[in-house]
Amino acid sequence: MRRSGDVRIRSAVGRGDQAMYIALGSRAGTALLGVPVQDVRAFLERTEALVPPGTEAGRIDWDAELAYLLSQS
Predict the structure, then answer these.
(1) Cα(32)–Cα(55) distance, rounded to whole angstroms?
(2) What residue spans of 4-59 are helical by DSSP H?
(3) In whole angstroms, what is the distance from residue 68 CA to residue 46 CA?
């Protein structure tokens, strides 16, 4: 069953295709995006170099974020 806001990701590398496919679903329809696997890999490597695993929480000012979210209501 598809719901509004569904995101589905699959790789086609095992079938000889060097791409990942991202399907974005909404009530209006679905968009299928093809992304080269090497681009995704490079992006994830750069991201991990900037924010090593386990350090994510130390880079967010949770009090400021909560205050911002509460001010938007």
Answers:
(1) 32
(2) 37-50
(3) 28
Q: What are 6's two structure tokens?
A: 């569904």
Q: Are 45 and 63 in contact (CB under 8 A)?
A: no
Residue pLDDT, tens place only, 4-62: 578 999 887 777 788 899 999 888 889 999 999 999 999 999 999 999 999 988 888 98
pTM > 0.85: yes or no = no
Query: 43: phi > 0 → left, psi -120 to 50 → alpha, else beta; which?
Result: alpha
The amino acid sitting at 19 is A
Distances (CA, A) of 11 to 17, 27, 51, 64: 8, 24, 25, 37
Residue predicted with more confidence, 11 or 65: 65
Number of Cβ atoms within 10 Å of the Cβ of 65: 10
